[in-house]
Amino acid sequence: MSAFKNINFNKLKLGLAKTKNKIVTQINETLSGKAQLDEELLEKLEEILLGADINYDITEKIIEKARISMRSEKDRSQVNILNIVKRQMSEILEKYKTEPEFTEFKKFKPYVILIVGVNGVGKTTTIGKLAYNYKQAGLKVVIGSADTFRAAANEQLDIWAKRAEVDIVQREKGADPSAVAFDTLNVAKNKNADVVLIDTAGRLHTKTNLMAELEKIKRVLGKVIPYAPNDVYLVVDGNTGQNAIVQAREFSKYTNLTGLIITKLDGTAKGGMVFSICSELNIPIRYVGVGEAIDDLLTFEPDQFVNALFD
Ligand SMILES: Nc1nc2c(ncn2[C@@H]2O[C@H](COP(=O)(O)OP(=O)(O)OP(=O)(O)O)[C@@H](O)[C@H]2O)c(=O)[nH]1
Ligand SMILES: [Mg+2]
User: Fold this and answer.
1) Which fold has domain 102-310?
2) Run of H or E including 141
C-alpha cells in the first residue's frame, strides 16, 4: 500500500534496456526475415525466454499459446507473434493489478514499514528513495536505523535522510536493533509522523539467529503500536535472478512479507525474473529500482512494465 505513485515510463524503459535487449531484441532478430512462425522458431523463442530468467513454466505457457495461435490464426506475421508473447507476459502480471490505495494508508498514523533483505540488495538506498517520495507527497517521515551491525550503516542512512529531508533515529553501533525500532516508533508518535521506515541489517536467509532477530524487531514494534508494522517489504536484487524466489520463501517463514521491491533492474539483463516472481510467489511487487539516484524508485505497474520492455 502506498501514498505515492512514482511513474515514469521513460525512466522505466531506460532502466530495463538490458533486459529488453536480451528478450525483445533477440526475439526480433530471430523473427526477422522469417515470414512465418514454425516449430523451429518456437524453439528459438523458448531459448530466448529461458535465457532471460523467465522460468520454465511460464516459458512453456507462452510457447504453447504461440503454438496454438500458430495453428489457428491466419496471421502468423512477426508482429502478431510478438503480440502473442506480449499478451502472455501481461497476463502473468495481471494479478497485481488491484492495489488498495491511499485511503487505507491514511487510516494509520504512523504507517509503519519494515524493510528486510539479504546483504547489499539495496535496502538502505531504497529507504532513502521511499522517504523522498513520501516527503514529496506531503507526509511527515521518520526513518529508524535498525542496522546497528555494519560500521558505516548509520552514516549512510543519515546521508539519505538529509537528502530526503526527513527525520532519523539512530543508536550507537552494536546496539540492539529492536531498541532502535522501539525508539523510532516513540519518536514518530511524539512528532505525529505519517510514515515510519525501518532499515535493518542485511541478513542471510539461512542464518536462523539473524532471522529470529527480525521476529524480535517485529514484536517490539507491535508493543509500541499494536498494529505495527503495516508492511514488511523484502528487497531483492534484480541481478540474483531466480534466487530471489528462494530468498522470499525463506524470509516468509519468519515474517509475513507484504510486498517485494526489486532493485538494480538497470544493471541487469535478468529482468525476466519479475515474471517468475509473479507466477511463483503470492507476494506483490510494489516498487522497482532503476538506478542509484533518489528518484530512481518506480511504482510497479504491470502494464507499464511489459510495455516498457516491448516499446
Ligand atoms: N544501479 C542501481 N544500484 C542500486 C539500486 N539500488 C541500490 N543500488 C546500489 O546497491 C548498493 C548497495 O545498496 P545498499 O542500499 O547499501 O544495500 P543494503 O541492502 O542496505 O546493504 P546492507 O545494509 O549492507 O545489507 C549501493 O551501491 C547502491 O547504490 C538500483 O536500483 N540500481
Ligand atoms: Mg543497508
Assistant:
1) Rossmann fold (3.40.50)
2) strand 141-146
